[in-house]
Design brief:
The protein is an alpha+beta fold. Helices cover about 40% and strands about 40% of the residues. The chain is built from 4 helices and 3 strands, in the order βαααββα. The chain has helices at about 15-25, 30-40, 40-60, 110-115; strands at about 1-10, 70-85, 95-110. It has a 3-stranded antiparallel beta sheet with strand order 1-3-2. A hairpin with a 5-residue loop joins strand 2 and strand 3. Helix 2 (about 30-40) runs antiparallel to helix 3. The longest helix has 21 residues, at about 40-60. The relative contact order is 0.27. The model has no long low-confidence stretch (mean pLDDT about 90).
Length: about 120
């Protein structure tokens, strides 16, 4: 069974988030939570929050044990872009694009992962 959690409109670029999501993909969920605690980045804190939400969804909504969960996919998808202007010489402006992201974490239990491998 697959369970997911989604955090939308995170004020961080997808590129910075992907550096952290690649690390936890394929790991057991509890090990990934511990690993995210020691990574000293803002993106790790946000991904950890989303992962904890996915684990809680699995436990409360689907009656799955957190020990059996594996991070099947951890995605950092691009969100909408906040557009601003920066004043420059001669009364003109240059565009500034502030990126946002959506964090999607998909967990699966070990039984489903073992069936996929066969």
């Amino acid at each position: 069974m697959e369970v997911q959690a989604l955090t939308k409109y995170v004020r961080l670029s997808p590129k910075k988030l992907r550096q952290v999501t690649r690390v936890i993909q394929g790991r057991p969920a509890m090990e990934a939570l511990d690993l995210l605690l020691i990574i000293p980045r803002k993106s790790a804190r946000l991904v950890r929050k989303t992962l904890a939400s996915a684990v809680a969804n699995a436990e409360n909504n689907h009656r799955l044990s957190s020990k059996d969960l594996v991070v099947k996919r951890a995605l950092a998808e691009p969100g909408s872009m906040i557009k601003r202007m920066r004043a420059v010489s001669r009364g003109s402006g240059h565009p500034i694009h502030k990126h946002t992201s959506h964090i999607r974490i998909i967990l699966s239990d070990n039984a489903a992962t073992a069936a996929d491998a066969e």
